[in-house]
Amino acid sequence: MSKNFTLLVDDANKTSYKNEEIINTVIWGDALSVLPELPTESADMIFIDPPYFLQTSNQTIPRWGSKTTLRKLDENWDKFSNFADYDNFMTSILQECKRIMKRNATIWVMGSFQNISRICVIMQNLGFWILTQFVWMKTNPTPNFLNRRPTNATEFILWAVKDKSVKDYTYNHELARAFSSQRYKIAVNIWELPACSGRERLKDENGKTLHPTQKPEALLERAILISTKDGDLILDPLAGTGTTAAVAVRYNRRFLLIEKEEKYIKGIMQRLNERNFNLFSASLTDDEGC
């Protein structure tokens, strides 16, 4: 497969993208604006790692045995006015994703205890058929230093098809079984993996973590290999640092990313270029953007 990729800056005057424009492409733009411009039934798989609406802005907690503190997530993309605002955002994203999915495509949507139940209801109301809910058990969770409740060591991933009638979706059972813990003799919906850390973590120009919730490539590897085939097109409309693309290309899949934050776009470009992928980019200047 070609290792040439394209970065497009979404144009306010743009009304639609052709199929040939979205193959191995990163679109710098707002998913709420870009998704309606994408071709109907064009994606073989969709992976969404949306804002969780954690509601922890500006909170700090002490570290064990230290005078330093651990700052909670404080990113604008995780802030919403209320639950109705959040639900409307997720509904708009998921409605468009359903249109973009091919008839037998599958969709993966991540969440935590704060939002996964809301997302599940939204998906069911939109007609999606939930195949299962995967449980990601982190082997290195961040401790709850205040000891007011147990440490949250899990996140969740809903795996679904467009509706109950879809039976011929891709499911690589043997790989699903191989990804399950050896304590089970069958494929199960529990994945034990460490959270992203060490050299895999992208850093900014000051050496600080670029994205607070970057997902490990091993997690995307499992989702992609279980539910896609060679050459399939994978859409990630809230792409962050581009983990989906990095894994897709490694396994001979094609990708389409959408991301609105300039700092993450730069991270995606760096990530792909460091792996000797040729990313044909628009210029990233201070006066450009979405």
How would you explain this protein's 3D organization?
The radius of gyration is 19 Å and the shape is globular. 24% of the residues lie in helices and 23% in strands. The chain contains 7 helices and 12 strands. The chain has a single domain, classed as Vaccinia Virus protein VP39 (Rossmann fold, 3-Layer(aba) Sandwich). Helix 6 links the parallel strand 10 and strand 11. It is an alpha/beta fold and 290 residues long. A 10-stranded mixed β-sheet has the order 9-7-8-6-3-10-11-2-1-12, sandwiched between helices. A two-stranded antiparallel ribbon has the order 4-5.
Compute the number of helices.
7
Radius of gyration: 19 Å
Give the tally of β-strands: 12
Question: How many distinct domains?
Answer: 1
Helix proportion of residues, in percent?
10-25%
Please state how the strands of the largest beta sheet are arranged side by side.
Answer: 9-7-8-6-3-10-11-2-1-12
DSSP strand content = 15-25%
Mean pLDDT: 87
CATH architecture group name: 3-Layer(aba) Sandwich
> What are the segments in which pLDDT stays under 50 over at least 5 consecutive residues?
61-70, 282-290
Sketch the major β-sheet. Answer: 10 strands, mixed
